[in-house]
Amino acid sequence: MPERALAMRSQLDNGHDLIDERRRELVITEREAKVPTILQAAEKTHE
Question: Please, are residues 11 and 18 in contact by the beta-carbon 8 Å criterion?
Fold first, then answer.
């Protein structure tokens, strides 16, 4: 466990915020989930 903590501290010292990166990934994933596919948009248009 101490090795993992040291690795994370090293990444933070180098400017990598792992929590912030994970949050950005979640925002992107949520945004992609809201965008309909071409098929979904066509089906909705032609209902």
Answer: yes
Asked whether 36 and 44 are in contact (CB, 8 A), the reply is yes
pTM of the model: 0.49
Amino acid at position 17, single letter: D
Q: What is the pLDDT of residue 47?
A: 86
The CA distances from residue 47 to 3, 23, 39, in Å, are 57, 37, 12
CA 46 to chain centre: 33
Q: How far apart are the first and last CA of the chain?
A: 56
Q: Of how many residues is the chain composed? A: 47
Alpha helices per DSSP H over 1-47:
2-13, 18-34, 38-45
